[in-house]
Amino acid sequence: MVSASQIRNELAFYLAGIISLDDFQDWVVLRTWNVSNSGSKAAEVLTFAIEESLSEYTSEHIPENELRKELDLILRADTRSVQISYSPQAIWSSKPNLSFTASRTSVLAVAAPV
């Protein structure tokens, strides 16, 4: 299974010009097609961010120089995942108010009592 560090390494190779965009895309397709089974939420979030940028590029919404900028931001982003467990109703004065914030480079989940 692919890890977030392996994905970051391959992305760094592309951005450094060590491998071509075609080679990077081939690697991503081959190594991350089942990333949801990897057990690594960080690898999953990273893969989906990369795939979104690649999709914008291949559909000609952005040129390659813009793709490189987006991928560089993804590479430099701190990818973290959090798991929020259900807390018994007795702890909360009422139902918990859950809010989620997401961006291309980070995902944050926050639970707060009402």
Question: Describe it for me?
Answer:
Helix content is 48%, strand content 11%. By secondary structure, it is mostly helical. The protein has a domain at 4-76. Strands 1-2 form a two-stranded antiparallel ribbon. The model is unreliable at 100-114 (pLDDT under 50).
SSE blueprint:
Blueprint: H1 4-15, H2 21-32, H3 41-58, H4 64-76, E1 97-102, E2 107-112
Antiparallel strand pairs: 1-2
Helix pairs in contact: 1-2, 1-3, 1-4, 3-4
Structural class: mainly alpha
Overall pLDDT level:
79
Shape, per Cα inertia axes: globular
Quote the beta fraction. 5-15%
What fraction, in percent, of the residue positions are helical?
A: 40-55%
Span between N and C termini? 40 Å
Write down the Rg: 17 Å
Strand order in the sheet with the most strands: 1-2
Q: Total strand count, please? A: 2
How do the helices and strands follow one another from N- to C-terminus? Answer: HHHHEE
Number of separate helices = 4
How many strands, which pairing sense, and closed or not: the largest β-sheet?
A: 2 strands, antiparallel
Uncertain segments of ≥5 residues (pLDDT<50)? 100-114
Give a brief description.
This protein is mostly helical.
What structural keywords apply?
single chain; 114 residues; mainly alpha; 4 helices; 2 strands
